[in-house]
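Entry 14. Structure prediction run on the chain below.
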Amino acid sequence: MRHLTRTTVAGVSLAAVLVGTDAVMPAVASAAELGQTSVTLPMTVGGFDARVAEANGYRIVTNGVGEKRSVPITAKAKMDAERPGVRNTVTGNCGSATLTITRNNSRGGINIQTGYTVKGTSVGHHWGVSGASNAGKAFTEGFSGVAGGSRWSATHFKAVYGYGQGGFGQIDVGSFAQLANGAMCFAGKATSNWK
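Output returned:
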C-alpha cells in the first residue's frame, strides 16, 4: 500500500464535477421513484498505519489491554483533532459510506455514485464497487485515489451489458479511507440496485 500524506484538493475540481453531474443527471425523479436504492452504512476503524500517522503529526499508542489509538503530537495535528466532529475513534463508527447506482439509457450503461464522510481528515482511499446486471454480466469499477478533507464522492459511468434489465452493486469488501491520524476507516458493505 502507498503511504499518503495530507493533500489539498482544489475546489475548482470539485465544483467542475458537481456542475457536470447536475448537467448530466437532472433531478426529475427520486431514486425510489425510478426503482433504485441508495444505501448508507457506518464505517469502522479496522487498523492503523503508523507511517501515515507520523507523516501527519500523530503517534499510534497501545493501552494496557492492547487497544490502539492515535494521539496528536504536533501543534497542527492537535488543532485538527480539536475541530468539531473530529475525535480519536478507536473502534466503532468513524464515518459513513454511500452507494447509488442508476441506469443511464442515453449512454448505454450505469452511473455509479459512491462516497464517504469520515470523522477526521482523509488523505486517500482504496475503494471499489462491483456487481452484475440481471443479464449476468459482472462489472468492477475502481475509485482509489488521494483525498483531502472529511468528505469524498465520485460518479463514474460504466458500460454494462444488460444494463436495461436492471442489476445490483456493492462497495467492495476491504474498501477504506486512510485518515491522517493513521486510522484505516473501512466501509460497510453498502449495496444498490437499479431497474
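The chain has three helices and twelve strands.
Filed with the rest of this week's runs.
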